[in-house]
Design brief:
The protein is an alpha+beta fold. It has 6 helices and 6 strands.
Length: about 160
């Protein structure tokens, strides 16, 4: 019986399932790829290699804690467009916020160069100023952005 060949998307999905099954069995699997979002989904640990040198290795969260400069957070504002615009104006005026980008779904993405205490102070300030914030959380780690930060030439910011 001739079986039709698996399509590329189906084959990729089946490969991911197989890798997850092997991982759950405690097997170690070494994957080399430049498709970083997929690696982030599949891997429990990574090594960032540039020009033959391992620059960082370990769990993505641990690498992120060591190398990420600042954080990117998303704030979900309670209310309609007026509240959202007012909160955006507030965040944009806070000196500790490097950038405040309004998203189309009522959230605001914030680039904060400081640490968790800075983020907490910004949230406290927004709520004290009367802005309703339903959620205020870090954007999920982005392995590609982390890779670009770690491999940037000395003195170059990404």
């Amino acid at each position: 019986m001739n079986r039709p060949r698996a399509s590329t998307p189906r084959a990729r999905a089946e490969l991911r399932e197989l890798l997850r099954a092997l991982r759950s069995m405690g097997k170690t699997i070494l994957i080399s790829s430049h498709i970083l979002p997929e690696l982030e989904e599949l891997c429990t640990a990574v090594a960032i290699i540039d020009r033959g040198r391992v620059l960082a290795s370990g769990r993505v969260e641990d690498i992120e804690r060591r190398f990420r400069r600042g954080s990117v957070l998303r704030a979900k504002v309670i209310g309609g467009p007026e509240e959202w615009q007012a909160a955006h104006g507030y965040f944009a005026a806070v000196p500790e916020v490097a950038a405040a980008v309004p998203l189309s779904d009522g959230r605001i993405e914030l680039a904060i160069p400081g640490d968790e205490a800075t983020s907490a102070a910004i949230l406290f300030g927004a709520m004290s100023a009367g802005h309703g914030i339903a959620s205020f959380a870090p954007v999920a780690s982005d392995l590609e952005e982390l890779f670009l930060q770690i491999t940037a030439p000395a003195g170059e910011e990404r």
